[in-house]
Amino acid sequence: MPRKAARQVRTGNRTARTPRRLRTGRRGAQPKVVALGGGMGLSASLTALRRITGDLTAVVTVADDGGSSGRLRSELGVLPPGDLRKALAALCGDDEWGRTWERVVQHRFISEGELHGHAVGNLLIVALWEQMEDPVKALDLVGMLLGAHGRVLPMSAVPLELEALVRGHDPARPREMSTVRGQATVALTPGEVHEVRLLPADPPAVPEAVAAVRDADWVVLGPGSWFSSVIPHLLVPGLLEALTETRARRVLSLNLAPQRGETDGFSPQRHVEVLVQHAPKLTFDVVLADQAAVPDRPSLCRAAERLGAEVQLAPVAASDGSPRHDPELLAAAYDRIFRMHGRIGPWR
């Protein structure tokens, strides 16, 4: 596309409804927010958070080994790009330029050949990685192209493998503990996941992700696949250290429902308990949950106390009854929490 035409697309009339940006304090001050997770859960959080701040960084898991990401990872030895692509798409601009690129990067080829199932954004990201040999700079460049309202970073610069300890993975032996390897396998495993770990065991954190967490006013962890997208952030030593030591306030955002396979039968408080098990020294200020998804608030409050957190219940689910967050309701919940708990650091 010629440069002049591209400029016209990017700055043209915005006919679609722009999400309402909530007020963020006197004189236009905005909080520095870092959101951690992966997949659709992180996308939901980013879609909400971009409505209340223009200073937003996503830190994304890099253990995916399924689908297009798994194929590219296996063939080229790169980081799995899929969750990074989804985060970038969630941050695309609201004008015609941003909406167009969101559709493009999310587009999947349907064919009889090798391209079948590959997402355009995955191929674009991997091509830039090979050209630039710097995953962070390449992602920043993709963000510029998309007009992203925030920055997207991998939690580690090396591909990681997820390993889980599962009780009853073999239905014929319901009490037996088994080791299951691979994020795609863990996400759909029968049985009960007790513990997850990363291979290599002590992966290096991306320095820019560590710096963002340390410099944040607010850190949001979750929602998302609990064992395969949320907890892995706590298994990267440099990132866990930053999360523990940051002056930022911390929000743990719970899922709307258990995930088939990975957290079958888990109550909201059980989600909190397994997080405490994996990072016993990490504290939070708030545990956010949908009010209709918490049948036993006292039990959730007791679990949250182990994190040093209070429970905030709010209507954040989509009105169609599906287990999806409503972006505006979730944005309103985050905004209310940010206001109730005051401001820290430069956002004060």
From TrEMBL:
Subcellular location field: Cytoplasm
> What spans are recorded as compositionally biased (Basic residues)?
17-26
What the entry lists under InterPro entries is as follows:
CofD, CofD-like_dom_sf, Gluconeogen_factor
Q: Which keywords does UniProt give here?
A: Cytoplasm
Q: A Pfam family for this UniProt protein? A: CofD
Segment Disordered: which positions? 1-29
Q: Which NCBIfam families match?
A: CofD_related
The UniProt entry's sequence similarity note says: Belongs to the gluconeogenesis factor family.
Function as written in the Swiss-Prot or TrEMBL entry: Required for morphogenesis under gluconeogenic growth conditions.
Name of the protein described by the UniProt record: Putative gluconeogenesis factor
Species name for this entry? Answer: Streptomyces sodiiphilus
Organism lineage reads as: Bacteria, Bacillati, Actinomycetota, Actinomycetes, Kitasatosporales
